[in-house]
Amino acid sequence: MGRVDLAIIGGGLVGASLALALQEGAKRRGWKIVLIEPFAPGDNYQPSYDARSSALSYGTRQIYERLGLWSEIARRAEPILQIQVSDRGHFGAARLRAAEEGVPALGYVAENAWLGRCLWRALDAEVVTWHCPAEVVGLEPLVDGYRLQLDDERSLDCSLAVLADGGRSGLRGQLGIGVRQQPYGQSAVIANVTPSEPHCGRAFERFTEHGPLALLPLPENRCALVWTRPGEDAGRLLALDDRQFLAELQQNFGYRLGTFRQVGTRNFYPLSLIEAEEQVRPHLALLGNVAHSLHPIAGQGYNLSLRDTLSLAETLLESPAAPGDFATLLRYRERQRLDQQLTVGFSDRVTRLFSTGAPLLAGGRSLGLLGFDLLPPAKRWFARQAMGLGIRADG
User: Fold this and answer.
1) Fewest beta carbons less than 10 Å away: which of 116, 237, 252, 389?
2) Which residues does 246 contact at the CB level (< 8 Å), separation at least 6?
3) Nearest to 52, CA basis, from 224, 304, 202
4) Cβ(19)–Cβ(8) under 8 Å?
5) 168-172, 212-216, 269-273, 361-365: lowest mean pLDDT where?
C-alpha cells in the first residue's frame, strides 16, 4: 500500500478530530494522512432515541470553532445552561449558571453519531484518505516509522502511527505499553430517559450512598443518564422492566423533572481509572481512551482527549521535522502533562468524594456544597474545570 506521513488507527471522534486539526497544515506541507477504521463512517445521520452522546465542555466548543466545525455541530448540540449538584439525604446543594460565568452555555451534549457525521464530512479527501473497513492487527517498528499489518494481509508504512482505537486496544498491549489501573468497584448504567417536565437546559449531578448519578439535557427533551452503581448491582438494574427501572430511578433522583415517562435501551460497563504508562515513543503517539480513560460522571474524558488532540496537531505542525520525530513528540507530551495530571486528579477526586457513604465524609461533602455559593472563587474554579478552561484559556 506504500507509505504515508501519518496513519491514524481508529477513525472515531478522536481520530477524526486529529485528522481535521492537521489537514490544513498537512496540505501546505504535502503530508498524506490515512485513517484506518473497522466500521465505515455513516454519512446519512438519522436521529435515534437510543443514540449515545458526549458531554462537550465550553472549551471543546472553542476548539471546534477554531477548526471551523462548531456551527455545524451546534445544529444538534443541546446547551447546558445550568448544572445542579445535590446530595441525596443531605441538605447541601449547589448551582452553576452559564450567565454567572459570562458564557452562552457551560457545555453542550451531542449525539456521537452527529459529531461523527460533522467530522467526517469536514475531512478533505485530497489530504485524508480512509482505509475502511479495515483493522490493524500488528505494528512493526522501522528505523523511520512503523509498518502496519492489516487484517486483509496488506501492509502500510508510516512516519507516525497514532493509536486512537479506544480503551480496549489490543495494539497497546501488543507493543508492550503497560497501564496503571485503579478500579472504582462500580459500573455505569447508560440510557436515555424522557421526563414529564422540560429540562430547560439543566444538567444534574446527584450523589447517593451507592454512587453518583448524572442527567444531561438532550434534544427533544430527552436526558442522557449515567447512573453509577456498585458492580454487582448494575446487572440487576438492567434486568428490571422499564416500569421498575424508572421507579427506582425516580426514588434516587427525585421529582426535579417531574416523573420519568420513558427509558430506552440500557447498557453498562465497569469503571476504572486507566492511564497508559507511555503516551509517546519514536514514531508513535497514543490518543483518547487508549491513553487515559476517566470516570464518566465528571464529563472530562472526551474533552481532555480533544485538548490532547489539538495540542498534538499544533506541536507537529510547529516542528520543522517530519511527523514521528521523537523530540517533537516529547514536546507534545510535556505540553499536555499538567493538563492531564490536573484533569485526571480533578475527575478522580470528585468521583471518590461523591461515591462514599461514610457519615463524616458525607457530612463534610454536604457542608461543602452548601458553602459553594458563599465562596465565589471556589465556585469559579470548579466551573472553569467543568468547562474545560482550567489549564488553557483558549480551550
Assistant:
1) 252
2) 193, 260, 261, 263
3) 224
4) yes
5) 361-365
Query: CA quadruple 284, 289, 294, 297: dihedral positive or negative?
Result: positive
Q: Is residue 288 a contact partner of residue 305, using CB atoms and an 8 Å limit?
A: yes
Peptide bond into 376 cis (omega under 30): no
pTM: 0.90
pLDDT in tens, 93-145: 678 889 988 999 999 999 999 999 999 999 999 999 999 889 999 999 999 99
> Bridge partners of 160?
6
Instruction: Please give the grid coordinates belonging to residue 102.
Output: 459570562
Q: Does domain 3-45+123-180+274-351 have CATH number 3.50.50.60?
A: yes
Mean pLDDT within 22-44: 88
Please state, rounded to an integer, the average pLDDT across all residues of the chain. 87
251/239 Cα distance (integer angstroms)? 18
Question: Cell numbers of 256, please?
Answer: 426535579
282: three-class secondary structure by DSSP: coil
CB distance 223 to 257 below 8 Å: yes
How far apart (Å, rounded) are the C-alpha atoms in residues 108 and 308? 19
> What pLDDT, in 10s, does the model give residues 235-273?
899 999 999 999 999 999 989 999 999 999 999 889 888
Question: Which residues fall within 8 angstroms of residue 94, CB to CB, at 6 or more apart?
Answer: 84, 85, 86, 369, 370, 372, 373, 379
CB 148 within 8 A of CB 155: yes
Nearest to 178 by CA among 288, 283, 290: 290
Q: Where are the domains of the chain?
A: 3-45+123-180+274-351
